[in-house]
Amino acid sequence: MPHYNLALLGFGNVGRALARLLLRKQTELKNRYGLTFAVTGIATGRRGTAIDPNGLDLERALQIVESNGNLSAIPNSQFPIPNLDFIRHASAHILFENTPVAYDDGEPAITHIRTALENGMHAVTANKGPIVHAYHELTALAARHGVHFYHESTVMDGAPIFSLFRGALPAAQLKSFRGILNSTTNLILGRMENGASFDEAVQYAQEIGIAETDPSGDVDGWDAAIKVSALATVLMDVPLKPGQVDRTGIGGLTSGDIAQAQAAGKRWKLTCSATRTDSGVTARVAPELIGPESPLFGVSGTSSIVQFETDVLGQLSVVEDNPGPHTTAYGLLADFVNAVRI
Amino acid sequence: MPHYNLALLGFGNVGRALARLLLRKQTELKNRYGLTFAVTGIATGRRGTAIDPNGLDLERALQIVESNGNLSAIPNSQFPIPNLDFIRHASAHILFENTPVAYDDGEPAITHIRTALENGMHAVTANKGPIVHAYHELTALAARHGVHFYHESTVMDGAPIFSLFRGALPAAQLKSFRGILNSTTNLILGRMENGASFDEAVQYAQEIGIAETDPSGDVDGWDAAIKVSALATVLMDVPLKPGQVDRTGIGGLTSGDIAQAQAAGKRWKLTCSATRTDSGVTARVAPELIGPESPLFGVSGTSSIVQFETDVLGQLSVVEDNPGPHTTAYGLLADFVNAVRI
């Protein structure tokens, strides 16, 4: 029975949700896929590092970190070591890269993933930076080392998008896509429909932990542009940088605009789209008036949707409702299983 | 480079759409998947049978059948032979079973597929009968012979549903699903919203080739119940017969009901649902009033939708627009590629 050692680099909300999901699915993975695993390394930002080639006690690690302790309390744990040493010495077959995103250059996540792949490990991430800045390099590197670089949770959390095209849609050519991919702006626009001002809506999104302290990455359409870039880069095989996306945020929409749309039975949505052209891809993020006939109309709150036009099907849409760290964690688990199963 | 011989049993709209798609995708399959193929057998209902272990001229076969000729015009073709002899003697690695559906017992498709599997061939079908009546037997038989029995196109045409759970959603437990799976009734209800009477709407659906001469299979909810059974049987691993589905058709809906719903900003839809219980599955097909907040509201015409509740994601929905024989053919092609690729 194949046995895999896992290293978790990053142990925040997503990393810990992955740990809990691994514990919950341990028996099912064994029974359904003949897959067993041990977590041999956990590296946190501020709560220490633990490595044990025989497998760490994952429940204990969760307890320690969630009660603000330090992983040095775990037997055999190590003093803090640089992340690259952690990757090399965690005795792992799979690296889960869950460090914070850096949108400008994708580092240090790219270097983490590169190191894992060069050492013959599969690499799995929910981090969009490496996709936008180094997808082709990392995918080629993985192929050279006979391992996989998977990233399902980078767009629409754990909803299957990349694996859909990789597995379920062979020989399909993606011609264009369109969707709502940024949940923060979708939530803000929904709150404004319910009477909140723009500032109140942003504040609410911050209070529930969806928006950042500086909300401009969402409000100005950058997060959406990054997701469009990731989808185009991977699914259309055309490297597209976020700066190449024709981008308009929702900052220009007033409460009057929202009310006017509602009076006409419509809604403003921040839509994303990309279309393959003879020379590459044109992509756009902009507020758009949507009527009730469109599947985009009913996509509210933090839900998201993407509609794909291919050369083999009519339009195929995927909608995800109620995402959260647990669904991102599921995408990481699915990547793990799909990287190692035959 | 792996080379596969294909046998097409059934050469109607779907079988011919598959033939055209195979021709169109031949180069792409070779370049992207290292896959080459030859069609070594075609059996039609009334236009003869052709077998050639060296590969038939597929374009010529299409021309002959579409100009009402007989495949006996093809060199090396055979006199009509029984289907089971065709399966055994077509020198094929994959059988595409595209004979007409028999809802009551799934035959003769089940026997065709069983024969293929017993002879070490993969079997691919768009025929719901074998799923509802013999899914577990055929799947076990395929496993014993080291081949696959795939059936993506039995529900929602070529939209990836079964392959989604098989590949992209490992270790996901399906708790319930809900959707609009019968396009004929969805089209009829849409026409009635536009002012047609029930009879006029049925007649329109018949004229465009969507509804049968006897529309009761659709109107009474049988087709929807069969699809619910197929999804529950495969995705929940609980054999569910169409007769076990609590079923109400759309025949009781009057133009007044439709107008009343529209006045309230709502729509009648024939919805399907199934929920896992401690003892199995409860399933239902019935008309339901849907408001614009629901993703089901905008699913019009021949489009369809299914919403999945799993233990690992929030709600995940798949929507298919503009289906047709070409999309059913794509599901068959995808099954072929997924059956043989590693």
Q: Summarize this, please?
A:
The structure is a homodimer of 342-residue chains. Chain A has helices at residues 13-33, 58-66, 83-89, 109-118, 128-144, 162-168, 183-193, 198-207, 216-219, 222-235, 255-263, 325-340; strands spanning 3-9, 36-43, 49-51, 94-97, 122-125, 149-150, 174-180, 246-247, 267-276, 281-290, 304-310, 315-321.
Q: Can you characterise this structure?
A:
- Two copies of one chain form a homodimer.
- The mean pLDDT of chain A is 95.
- The first copy, chain A, is an alpha/beta fold.
- Chain A has helices at 13-33, 58-66, 83-89, 109-118, 128-144, 162-168, 183-193, 198-207, 216-219, 222-235, 255-263, 325-340, and strands spanning 3-9, 36-43, 49-51, 94-97, 122-125, 149-150, 174-180, 246-247, 267-276, 281-290, 304-310, 315-321.
- Chain A is built from twelve helices and twelve strands.
- Chain A is globular.
- In chain A, the strands form two sheets. Chain A has a six-stranded mixed β-sheet, with helices on both faces.
- In chain A, helix 3 packs parallel to helix 4 (109-118) and helix 7 packs across helix 8.
- Strand 12 of chain A pairs antiparallel with strand 12 (315-320) of chain B.
Please provide the count of β strands of chain A: 12
Shape of chain A: globular
Helices and strands of chain A, in order, run as: EHEEHHEHEHEHEHHHHEHEEEEH
Largest beta sheet of chain A, briefly?
6 strands, mixed
Please report the two chains with the greatest interface, counting residues with C-beta closer than 8 angstroms to the partner's C-beta.
A-B, 49 and 50 residues
Rg of chain A, alpha carbons: 21 Å
